[in-house]
Amino acid sequence: MADDVLFEFLHMEMVSHIYKDQASKGEMDKDRATCVSTLEGMGFRVGQGLIERFTKDSPSFKDDLDVMKFICKDFWINVFRKQIDNLRTNHQGTYVLQDNKFALLTQFSNGKQYLEEAPKYLAYSCGLVRGALSNLGMDCVVTAEVSLMPSCKFQVVIQKI
Amino acid sequence: MADDVLFEFLHMEMVSHIYKDQASKGEMDKDRATCVSTLEGMGFRVGQGLIERFTKDSPSFKDDLDVMKFICKDFWINVFRKQIDNLRTNHQGTYVLQDNKFALLTQFSNGKQYLEEAPKYLAYSCGLVRGALSNLGMDCVVTAEVSLMPSCKFQVVIQKI
Question: Which GO terms describe its biological process (chains A, B) (predicted)?
Fold first, then answer.
């Protein structure tokens, strides 16, 4: 419990710092993209580190779906305190992970007034997932979408080489 | 365990982001001070938030020493997974908290080669303590000192009004 808060508070501070820092430099539109990519990059490196710890004692994975199941269950529980509620795939390299109560969005009220702000608070987590998958040999693009707080969908698209 | 890592990794990324960001702006000396103060400020706000949660069910404190004991025990365990090893005071508003194995320094090797880097990794924690104390009505200056990794001394000086 204390730990959740420790991470959540630090995450909020970091988002707000990065956005404030960019705002002070002017150029609003370019800024938004830069902030998202800065946060995503931080998440990516942390995700790489985390997955190394989490998979230390795990057997190897038999396929991509097996990896995704690990992300939805073990990884998500370790990081966000709950499992992903729903995993869907088109069996062609696209996965949709739905979390009905995403930890980093629970501080916001359920209404629509904060929907526009949501992407700021998802960039770091998209990076976490991309970093974790990258270390498991899966090169992906990860995006997130919120239609009703605090539920959230992460889309993972595996990049064919 | 997973949570420790989550917080520690995010903290490392944040320190490195803030230093890199400043370095790109030039002016090295002014920069160091700015980075320390940015990190300290983030810690301060998080410390304020954390202490509110941690003291929700606590009885009120009878004096400053009582508050400091709470910081050394409950607060430190919640945040850094262990108690402060030694608390000293001159009974005139100065307290020295010694942690023989400070969580955010354990990733570094014990030698002297990283001593110079240590202050970067302590600024956020100094802010945490200052924020927590501030919310408990104690206006303080908090500094940290490392003479041998990973042990660390935090000095708290209460400001008389």
Answer: endoplasmic reticulum to Golgi vesicle-mediated transport; nervous system development
